[in-house]
C-alpha cells in the first residue's frame, strides 16, 4: 500500500513539473532553437515489406530506403517523396512520353497580386515542370494588373476574372468553388494534371513530374513531426471538416495540392459543398479551406504525399532532413495583404 501511495505521489509531482515545462515550451516555441527539438519526435519508418511495392506512373522505382531518418511511405502504401528517393530524369522522360499538359493555378487577389505574383511566376518559369507543356491559370479581380512574364516555349498564361469577396476568409472560401468551375471548363479540357498553389511563395529549385499522381497532398512544414492528436484539425463536431482525436493521418498544407482533373473535380466539389453546409449552420472551420482539405484527404487518401522539402518555410529554421527545398514561403505579412 505504502509503495502505491509513494508511486502516486511521484506521479503527481511529475505532472506538476511537466505542466509548467509544457507551457514554457509552448511559449518559447517561437524560438527556432526550441522548435528544433521537435525533430527528435520520430516520424516513423516505412515498413521494409512496403518499400519494394512503392512506385507510381511517373517515378518508376523509388528508393525509400535512401532516407532512413524520415518517413518515406504512408500506411496505405503511398510514397512520401523526399529528395534522394526518386530519379528526376525518369519522371521527366515518362511525363514527356505521356505528352502531358500540366496546369498550375494561383489566386492573386487584392494586394497579393503586386506583392507576390511576379516572383511566383518568374520562379515557376525557372523551376516548375521545366521541359513539359505548362498552362498557368491566374485568378484575379484585376486582370489588367497581372505583370508581364516572359514564358518559355510550350508554356501559356491564362488570366481568369473573379469577383473579389469582401473578407479574406471568404476569398479563401471561394477558391474551391472557382477551381471546381475552372476544372469543369477550359482548364479541365487543356490539362491532364493540375497543381493548385498559394501565391505567397516562390520556387527555389526543380519541381518536376516526380510530384504528379492522381491525388497529391503536401505535408505541412510546421506540423510534420507533431503527434496526431495535437494537429490543428477542426475539432468542432458540428463542422463538416471535423476530425476526432483518433482520425487524421497527417496535417496537409492547402498551399500545394494537385492531381488529375477528375480527382480534383471531386476534391473541390467536396470542399466547396462542406464549406457551404458549415456556413448555413453559421460555422467557419478553424483553418478555412485547409480544414476541409484535411477532412477530404482523410476520407480519400492521396496517391502521393510530398515531403516538406517541396514547400518549406525558412522561418522554421535549419533542419538537416530538409535537403533541397523546392518552394519557399514568403514571410507572412497578413497586416499588409489582408486589409
Ligand atoms: C501532344 O499534345 C499536344 C497538345 O495536347 C498535341 O497538339 C500534340 O499533337 C500531341 N503530340 C503527340 C505526339 O501526340
Ligand atoms: C496511374 O495511371 C492509371 C491510368 O491512367 C490510373 O488509373 C492510376 O490511378 C494512376 N496511379 C496513380 C498513383 O496516380
Automatic annotation (TrEMBL):
An alpha-L-fucosyl-(1->2)-beta-D-galactosyl derivative binds at residues 220, 290. The active site is at residue 290. Its cofactor is Mn(2+). The chain crosses the membrane at residues 13-31. GO terms for molecular function: alpha-1,3-galactosyltransferase activity; metal ion binding. UDP-N-acetyl-alpha-D-galactosamine binds at residues 107-109, 112, 198-200. Signal peptide: none annotated. One of its GO terms (biological process) is carbohydrate metabolic process. This is Alpha 1,3-galactosyltransferase 2. It comes from Dipodomys ordii. The lineage of its organism: Eukaryota, Metazoa, Chordata, Craniata, Vertebrata.
